[in-house]
């Protein structure tokens, strides 16, 4: 398995080099998404074991504040709705990993913002190129958007059905049995695990039939695509809350392309800008604002392509620092840390109180995307072989990392503590050993899931569309990215303005895994 992963890395690097000079102009999208997915894994591993990772440097939670149920704060007294903070000493939050920018290595919340922004940009590549080609391309645009709307639900839903169904079978054969003995309630779980988060294991039921019924009802709750009053989730993988959001925003993005297509460029960009500002404030839909921002940046880049000869200057370094600083704004207790307290003084109309940090994260992610798209040095970092490989398996990594952490990870850490002990350094030593095992295991499982489920789903969606149109397997319309098949006859079809000569990345590479995914909540 490790050899397969290494081969993939070499293939990604060689394919990237073969398309130089210059490097693929859109390969950085894969890399940005791939690194973000890896950081989500780091986050979900770390916050189960170390409480401090959730808080920014210098955070001092006021006495008698209430920490919500399901989260852990040792310096407090349990009450009916959480934990009443009665002491400040247990955690002073002065670890280097909690510093601004550095904390991005262990905070998954900003990665959600990056995922949605990347989705908005990448899903807009083909429609934008057709819109800019003029009215003569509008029939093709309509066909493209129709194809996108048809295939998007298949692309997003089938992989999560597969991943959660695998969890059902894992529960049935006993993989979760040991973990469920101490991970079924927050109180029991946090008596062993010192982290902030509580991610419960699925309910272990007596038979496969009962387990499947429970799974079905959990999907009924998860697949509520059009609610905006709460984030839906399933106990079979609580991280999947972003998928309904992704689908809803994708469909609205396609509708936006259709509505704005006949307009002149200035009107289109103006309406997009107004929509973004409204969504970030009174609209209270920061997630849709990110998709529209991706669409806006995509069109701006098509109007003013990045210069491959741009030299890195001090202003680019300062802009990168500022973007990452904003991106690392904590989602909780930002008003209690000196580095981010001034942000909370700014009144942002419309956003829910617990979502105000998303405003600053959105600004930071937008600045980061602009820099990566236009500064060759930054773009190169997100276009190397490792970045592209992580981008390829990013959706699979997101889908499988939670089940691996909650089954093998929980049980392994618990067993190690029983042998080595949980006092002082022994606790951290066992956690590090657990990470050394489940890290490579998760990458290997993600690689298999990508090859056996994720990528075949893309091809399956294309074939289903062809069958539904009465065209059969051999005659489907061009897909979301303008490519009509899986190398049939060696022919590839390229979107106007995004051919191999000027982007260097095939439509298939763009289509596979091009979805946003989320982090914690």
Automatic annotation (TrEMBL):
GO MF term set: acyltransferase activity, transferring groups other than amino-acyl groups
UniProt keywords, alphabetically: Acyltransferase, Membrane, Transferase, Transmembrane, Transmembrane helix
Q: Which residues form a coiled coil?
A: none
Q: Could you tell me which InterPro entries the record lists for this protein?
A: Acyl_transf_3_dom (IPR002656), Acyltransferase_3 (IPR050879)
Pfam families reported for this sequence: Acyl_transf_3 (PF01757)
Superkingdom of the organism of origin: Eukaryota
Identify the stretch(es) annotated as Disordered. Answer: 471-521
Compositional bias, Basic and acidic residues, is annotated for: 485-501
Protein name according to UniProt: Acyltransferase family-domain-containing protein
Give the organism the record lists: Elsinoe ampelina
Taxonomy, top ranks, is: Eukaryota, Fungi, Dikarya, Ascomycota, Pezizomycotina
């Amino acid at each position: 398995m490790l050899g397969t992963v290494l081969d993939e890395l070499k293939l990604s690097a060689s394919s990237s080099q073969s398309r130089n000079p210059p490097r693929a102009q859109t390969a950085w999208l894969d890399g940005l998404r791939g690194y973000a997915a890896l950081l989500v894994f780091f986050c979900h591993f770390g916050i189960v074991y170390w409480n401090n990772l959730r808080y920014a440097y210098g955070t001092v939670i006021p006495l008698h504040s209430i920490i919500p149920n399901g989260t852990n704060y040792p310096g407090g007294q349990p009450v009916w709705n959480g934990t009443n903070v009665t002491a400040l000493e247990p955690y002073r939050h002065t670890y280097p990993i909690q510093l601004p920018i550095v904390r991005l290595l262990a905070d998954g919340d900003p990665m959600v913002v990056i995922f949605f922004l990347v989705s908005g940009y990448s899903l807009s590549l083909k429609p934008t190129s057709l819109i800019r080609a003029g009215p003569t391309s509008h029939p093709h645009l309509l066909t493209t958007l129709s194809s996108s709307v048809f295939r998007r639900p298949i692309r997003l839903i089938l992989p999560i059905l597969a991943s959660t169904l695998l969890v059902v079978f894992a529960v049935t054969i006993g993989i979760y049995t040991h973990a469920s003995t101490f991970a079924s309630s927050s109180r029991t779980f946090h008596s062993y695990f010192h982290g902030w988060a509580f991610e419960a294991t699925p309910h272990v039921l007596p038979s496969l039939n009962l387990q499947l019924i429970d799974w079905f009802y959990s999907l009924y709750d998860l697949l509520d695509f059009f609610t905006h009053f709460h984030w839906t989730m399933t106990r079979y993988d609580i991280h999947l809350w972003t998928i309904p959001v992704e689908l809803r925003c994708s469909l609205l993005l396609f509708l936006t392309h259709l509505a704005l297509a006949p307009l002149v460029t200035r009107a289109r960009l103006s309406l997009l800008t107004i929509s973004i500002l409204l969504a970030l404030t009174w609209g209270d839909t920061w997630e849709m604002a990110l998709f529209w921002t991706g669409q806006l940046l995509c069109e701006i880049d098509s109007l003013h392509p990045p210069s491959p000869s741009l030299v890195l200057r001090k202003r680019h370094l300062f802009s990168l620092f500022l973007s990452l600083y904003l991106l690392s704004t904590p989602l909780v207790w930002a008003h209690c840390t000196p580095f981010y307290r001034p942000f909370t003084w700014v009144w942002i109309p419309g956003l829910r109180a617990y979502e105000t940090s998303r405003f600053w994260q959105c600004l930071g992610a937008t600045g980061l995307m602009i820099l990566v798209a236009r500064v060759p040095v930054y773009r190169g970092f997100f276009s190397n072989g490792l970045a592209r490989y992580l981008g390829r398996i990013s959706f699979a990594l997101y889908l499988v990392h939670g089940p691996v952490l909650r089954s093998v990870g929980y049980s392994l850490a618990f067993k190690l503590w029983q042998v080595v002990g949980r006092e002082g350094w022994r606790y951290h030593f066992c956690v590090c050993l657990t990470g050394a095992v489940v890290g490579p295991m998760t990458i290997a499982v993600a690689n298999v899931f990508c090859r056996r489920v994720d990528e075949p789903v893309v091809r399956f969606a294309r074939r289903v569309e062809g069958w539904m149109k009465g065209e059969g397997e051999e005659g489907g319309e061009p897909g979301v990215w303008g490519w009509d098949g899986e190398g049939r006859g060696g022919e590839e079809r390229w979107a106007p303005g995004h051919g191999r000569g000027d982007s260097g990345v095939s439509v298939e590479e763009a289509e596979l895994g091009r979805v946003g995914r989320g982090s914690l909540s």
